């Protein structure tokens, strides 16, 4: 099973188990909201642009709420589990589902997992960690462009990837999966270490960044 399919199946199982009212790390969203968001991304390309473009966000919110009204929670989770339809961009463009949704589904899986009590990081296969490192390394400057301080990402083996070049700089160390969560703005729940001036670290931990 591919990483994207494994993440999709595991996230869907967790959503089914927790029900529609469980918290997530996405501010103000329950598991029902998150399921509707994922369905919107994959089945409503007309509304998905508002995820990234603030001037379209109102339309996106309206469509997401409409999905929650029209579909029961089990039906929404079933659509998440089924994945993007063949007519969607993820179905039409070979490799796009894996290229985009491997990261998206991992992050949102952890948004659900880490909002529940007693969570611990998962042990991921080495090839999945390597994949995440490649994506983080390539995207670090984009992900961290709004950082108020300089950032260098570092794996436990010492391998580094530059993020934002500025002074003072903070070195953030962790497994690639944890650095991915950090770079997507989940600093409070990413198991990473910080090396830098205390004020710079504090500013970095509160910075709004990611896609």
Automatic annotation (TrEMBL):
Q: In this protein, which residues make up the domain named Mycothiol-dependent maleylpyruvate isomerase metal-binding?
A: 4-49
Signal peptide positions on this chain: none
Quote any Pfam family the record assigns: MDMPI_N
Q: What is this protein called?
A: TIGR03085 family protein
Which species is this record about? Microbispora corallina
């Amino acid at each position: 099973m591919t990483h994207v399919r494994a993440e999709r199946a595991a996230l869907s199982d967790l959503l089914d188990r927790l029900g529609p009212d469980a918290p997530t790390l996405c501010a103000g969203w329950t598991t029902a909201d998150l399921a509707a968001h994922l369905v919107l991304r994959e089945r409503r390309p007309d509304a998905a642009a508002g995820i990234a473009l603030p001037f379209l966000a109102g339309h996106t919110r309206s469509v997401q709420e409409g999905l929650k009204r029209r579909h029961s929670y089990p039906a929404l989770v079933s659509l998440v589990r089924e994945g993007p339809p063949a007519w969607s961009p993820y179905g039409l463009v070979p490799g796009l589902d894996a290229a985009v949704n491997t990261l998206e589904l991992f992050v949102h899986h952890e948004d659900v997992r880490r909002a529940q009590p007693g969570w611990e990081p998962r042990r991921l296969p080495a090839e999945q960690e390597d994949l995440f490192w490649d994506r983080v390394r390539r995207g670090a400057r984009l992900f961290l462009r709004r950082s108020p301080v300089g950032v260098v990402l570092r794996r436990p083996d010492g391998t580094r990837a530059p993020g934002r070049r500025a002074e003072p700089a903070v070195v953030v160390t962790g497994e690639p999966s944890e650095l991915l969560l950090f770079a997507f703005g989940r600093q409070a729940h990413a198991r990473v270490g910080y090396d830098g001036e205390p004020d710079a670290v504090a500013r970095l931990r509160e910075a709004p960044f990611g896609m």
